[in-house]
Here is the input.
Amino acid sequence: MEPMAQEQKELFGYPYPWLRSCWRELSHRYLSQTLPHALLLVGQRGIGKADFALNLARLVLCQSVTGSTEALFSSNLGASANLVSSDDSVSKSDSMLVEDDRELPMPCGHCRSCLLLRAHTHPDLVELEPEQKGKAIKIDQVRELIEFVSKTSQIGGYKVAIIRPANALNINAANALLKCLEEPTAQTLLILVNESPQTLMPTIRSRCQIVTLPLPSTQLAQAWLRQQPQVREAEVKESEIDQMLYLTHGAPLTTLHYFCGDMQQNRQQVLDGFLALTKQNMTPVSLAAEWSTLDVIDIIDWLYYWLKGIVIRQEQVNCAGNTSEIVMAPVLATENELFDTVLRCPALAPMALHLFVNVLLEAKAKLVTTANPNKQMLLEDVLIKWRQLMMQGPRVDWG
Here is the structure.
């Protein structure tokens, strides 16, 4: 599940600045009564798809939407802008350019429906997720959803169901969901959330309007992160923000979660384990078991980041001929230890390292594009291949 910024949880609506244009479009369609019965929100992890889906549900269920509809027809996003921060201690370069959120249609936060939503007791909203993290959404859950949409609204107005991640639907659950998509009831909105549309059945994709939520520019992501209280309180350096944005492929919420959650500790655990495997102090299977409670996509991203760093370091060693002459971006001491350990391994020639980078890319593709992949087995396969590369180098044959 995507991390959420604390402010976005507590406020009742304002979309993240990089999602404002999508919010403008969908809120316009809702107010003009042209909203489709099923939406498929797709986009990279860590950009706010979960928040966006929940806030859209709140808007649709609100009984007294606030904001001016004139904002829907104003100039394009970014044409006119205001500085978010009025803090004199923040330079203009640190301020983020956005439009005035107050003019966008938003849930009021005070009507009966909004109060029920705040209390998580709204009878016309269902959120469908796996019962256990990493598991599938079962057919019994979808059957309950079908019963929900077949009934009339208890508050009056829309019924909304959010399904996330949609690729967690097992085959039977996905087939059962088709009934809701093929025979929509009046004033029912189904919001499916997923990273990629390609992991869903074509019959499901074809019955939803696909909305691709964009990744923010690096400049916008940096500015937004600098303004978050968690980042300010932690006195995070500019270089740390840049490094983590690079590591998270520009995803601001994942980056924020790293600075205010347990991701730093998890990343250190993965680094220590991978270093132990590289030194042959652990086996691939035991290490995969140790990492079983962590997010596999995060693990693959971190391994990819470190391998890219090792490849760069190796190329610089070959060019300079002396490691003391190498200039590298700031890294943790344990990252340097990993780099040095790998570079001392004679089997890990440049070609071998590039082979493993490809292994990581293929693993990430499987995680993103395969419905309900066996993550533990995939992780074991990645680590076994790393061990084989260390022993055999580019001569390894994976058949």
